[in-house]
Amino acid sequence: MEATGKLTNVQLELLKLFQYNLSDAQLTDIKGMLARYFADVASSEMDKLWEEQSWDEKTIESWKDEHLRTSG
């Protein structure tokens, strides 16, 4: 992501939380909610890829043997 000097919609929304003095437990809860949200999004995207690409366990097994490093 390129720095544009403008805040993103997520940053603007999170700034609204700064008006509150939250406890450490509340901050931990919020971090957990954000982590779960983004994990769920990533999981949904992977599920979609598996479906679209017809991946299966054989696909995963074949990936284990691939050499993905490039010379450089």
Characteristics:
mainly alpha, 72 residues
Short structural summary:
The chain is mostly helical and 72 residues long. It has helices at 9-15, 24-53, 57-64.
Strand content: under 5%
Give the class from helix and strand content and strand pairing. Answer: mainly alpha
Percentage of residues assigned to helices: 55-70%
Which outline best applies?
Answer: elongated
Mean pLDDT across residues: 88
Largest sheet: none
Give the termini separation.
25 Å
Helical region count?
3
Unreliable stretches (pLDDT < 50, length at least 5) are none
Indicate the radius of gyration in whole angstroms: 19 Å
Order of helices and strands: HHH
Number of strands: 0
Q: What topology emerges from the helices and strands here?
A:
Layout (H helix, E strand, L loop, with lengths): L8 H7 L8 H30 L3 H8 L8
Descriptive account of the structure:
The protein has a domain at 21-64. 62% of the residues lie in helices and 0% in strands. The chain contains 3 helices and no strands. It has helices at residues 9-15, 24-53, 57-64. It is elongated.
